[in-house]
Amino acid sequence: MTRLPDSRLFRRSALAAAVAVLLPFQALAQARTQQDATTAPQVETDAKTLDAVHVTASRKVENLQDVPVSVTLISAEALDVLGSGGTDVRFLSGRVPSLNIESSFGRAFPRFYIRGYGNTDFRLNTSQPVSLVYDDVVQENPILKGFPVFDLDRVEVLRGPQGSLFGRNSPAGVVKFESVRPSQEFGGYGKVGVGSDNMWNVEGAVGGGLTDQWSARASALFQRRDDWVDNTFAGPNDGLEGYDESAIRLQALYEGEDFEALFNAHARHLNGTARLFRANIIKHGSNDLVDGFDEDKIAVDGLNHSELDSFGANARLRWNLGNGYTLHSITGYETLDTYSRGDIDGSAGPYFTAAIPFASETADGIPDHSQWTQEFRIESNFDGAWNWQGGLFYFNEDYDVESFSYDSLAGGAQDGYERINQTNDAWALFGAVTWAATDKLELRAGARYTWDKKDLRVEEYWNTGFAPCIGPSLGIIPGPVRCTLADLAAAEPDGDLSADTEDKKFSWDLSATYEINDDVNLYGRVATGYRGSSIQAASAFNFKSLAEPETATSFEAGVKADLWGNRARINAGVFYYEVKDQQLTAVGGSSNANILVNAKKATGQGVEMDFQAYLADNVLFTLGSGYNDTEIKDADLSVSVCASCTVTDPLDGNGKALIDGNPLPQAPEWTHNVTLRWGIPTSNGGEFYAYTDWVYRSELNFFLYESKEFTAKSLVEGGLRVGYTWGYGKYDVALYGRNITDEVQVVGAIDFNNLTGMINEPRLFGLEFKANF
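Above: the chain sequence. Below: its structure as tokens.
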């Protein structure tokens, strides 16, 4: 693709340009308002104001301004705009302060980070410190976290530990997805979008009353895109990066006098390309793309394919027990089947050279999986100063993980296999209390005790690849020979390939909200949370490793205010957190190891702000910003480094990097997001509008150690939507663009010797039509 010489400079300044564009929009809007004021008949009209925002951060519906938690809500309208172009859940990255989402599996396996706190581990039995909750059911396995975004009422991002009410594996925060519920009123929508690379994005929903007490809603999604990357090598794939994905959700709601039941069944199917790894795309000694890099072409000789099927169902029951008490029961079931194969070395050889030291083609999959959850929760709804809630939670997960390796030099013949089984059982008892101490001051407290047990077994293993194995006599046997399960067990210091962990943890939180006046609240919060122990199975490249549970303590304080007669709103705060025994994944090095380690401590501190305002009655502006300063604090912790990059950390006597003082990986210091919607109403109930959105994140480290090549540059991406609505919002047609400045940056990497990287999504333009009924 040919670029203008100054296109890079333009893209680096895109955010500044976007802000500059806002100024004439505002001026035109204000001029129009002033003109209308002088020419139109003088009648009293209400100025446009922001609606109250309700969230469920405390497991019940409350005004956002009254909740002593740092929360950002993404509305259904914003989700429509940001999701244009068939993008997956990663489009939420940076769209709220301090949220980052990345993946080395493409659409299948998103990894979430809040305030710089997350987990880079790519294994399918890993956990994350950011919990994802979909319709009140936790999605524990990382594959489940990628369910498509469609027919949602809202997304809530809760920052900071949520251990009391949401449980384990939420010390960084929670991302909550809430589907549109059925109702007695008949309605729905249909949406069709087409775009670049033969992209189709089709979704819709329909629902209404079935009887006086029963209602239902069905929603569906289909997305596809052609391959947009040409494989110049005559390998098994001619093109790459295409996909087709479909999903469906069926809901039924029963509403009785003192009893309500909401049933939900959902499924997903994905068929397409796995994450595309590109060899030698980073210029040695810098983090620039190599000269002449073409994102539309690659040469790989390995097979690239990804497929995924998942299914789930849940039942949410609510009883009004009288006397101010309500009982909730939430039962959930999830299962999935996935397989993803990729050419990890990102090339087609020639191998065993300085540029391509070896061939690597692997696959991972989950052939069998089940997750069951059950929660019982009772809450009070008193008119007095005191209210409380408490409950019991149970979690059970049982699944197999398969890992494969292939010989690209032998036509992709399989040369290795491993299957592990992991089970996880957890029980929790929790409660929370709210006390209106005065008319101005409200105090809250929560607590949770969790018992959490994991068991892992290696059930089958063999390898005939280039990696050596250690035989029963503990002698090194050079490949290629068939290494067996017995050989692998003999290599373990304890001779045992199984591992189990058991955690017993207490989490708590204390918070206060003080009302300055009807429009301004101050809040403070201290909270704890934890992530359970993790197990890495032994394999060809590393021994079995275990990481102890990590515990986080967070302090934050902020202000939530409605301004200018509810024409503007600002929520801002400062925070500090400390993670003890933080679990980290050390990858790469000359042995390509992948092991778990615990850092003694890691810290994070920063500020966050959400602002939205009507600059004029037809001009809505939003701004979100987050600053996150993270640091690993462990003077004795060292990790292996890449063999062909420029490491900037000090090294110990074994050539490993000392990472004390480094920021956490995938943790940008700054994130900003800006949106502007400008509408011009017409006399017949229509509106011409323009909507632009921009997101910025600063540079970040890909790995635990620091190096010039594996430091991601800052990234700016923008979107634009220009359209017309008519029928008082019933119909909408729009032209849209995503990544409109065609920003191309490395956003992920593998620290092989050949500077392998992954890039962001390409520029996309399209047309979309939506009808509500």
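The chain has one domain: 7-38+60-772.
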